[in-house]
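Reopening this one. Same input as before:
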Amino acid sequence: GRLLASASVDGTVKLWATRDGRCVRTLAERIKAKIWCCAFDATGELLASGGAECAVRVWKVSDGTLLATFREHKGVVRAVAFNPSMPGMVASGEGNLTWGSDNSIRVWLFDPASTGSVDNHPSIIDSGLLDANAV
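Same output, byte for byte:
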C-alpha cells in the first residue's frame, strides 16, 4: 500500500507515505483520549479508529472527513476491522474490568441506525472477525 496509518496516545490518527516516510495527513483535530487502534477498509478509501473515549470513528482517507461516529461502547475500543466484502465494521471493547469494560463486540453497517451487537460476552475479548458469509 501507499499509506500507513498510526494511532497514537496523543489522540491523533496520522497517515504516512510508505515511500518516503512523511506524514501526509492528520485526521481531524486531536481527540481528547488515547487512540488504541485503526484499520483501513479493503479499498483503502476509509479508515476506522477507536480508543479510550469508547467510540469508533470512520474517516474518508482522501480528505480526512469524519463520516461517522459510533458511541455504543462502555469500555475502551481496542480493535476495529472492516469486512472486505460488505460495508460493515466490527469493534471490540476493552476487557480490563478496572476500566469499566463492557466486554462486547459491536457490528455496524455504515448506516448508524442499523446496529447489531453481541453484548455481555462472558470473557475478555482480544479480537473479532466479521465473516460476510455468516451475516
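So the earlier flakiness isn't reproducible anymore. For the record, The longest strand covers residues 35-40.
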